[in-house]
Amino acid sequence: MKVSRRAVLSEDERLDALGRLLTDAEIPMRLRAAGVIVLLYAQPVSPIVRLSVDDLIRDGDTVLLRLGEPASPVPAPVAALLLEHIANRDNMNTATNPASCWLFPGRRAGQPFRPDHLSALLNEVGVPAAAARGAAIRQQLLELPGPVVADALGYHNKTTTRLLNETGGTWSRYAAGDHTRSPAGWAPRGPGDS
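User: That's the sequence. What structure does it adopt?
Assistant: Structure tokens below.
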């Protein structure tokens, strides 16, 4: 079987695919859920199938998806879709999977869905995983500093830096690290200090 790979979806193609996955009830729920994770969070299919239901965190009205640290916020329509998917996951009624913790349980006992199979199914519904992932991370990098994207999405800094350079992003002077602490020896100036 010959696999064709497109480098990246255009932003319009990415948004069209995202809209279709959010609204088209004819597309199987697991493909809609996996596809929105690819299109929004630039995740490869292999880590997506390894997500557990505990990686979707509910905190009051807020829903977060643990891909890196900190967990990433999930927009309301996507949160509703993912929560519906959890409530109605496939492969849960078999004797081998009655209490599976996988967000995308497979047919084999205790195993998640196979990434190659999920990727092929996503391609069939118009979401070529690699091209969609490339479009999603490039869009993230146009909106946020590379180190922030790397931490939030579980990517390596070198990867986001390379992709940022390819996209022509302008976050070249962002200092990665903990910005909640003051540098050692630094103290705020008082009103009489000059």
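Helices lie at 11-23, 29-41, 45-49, 76-87, 115-124, 129-143, 146-153, 157-167.
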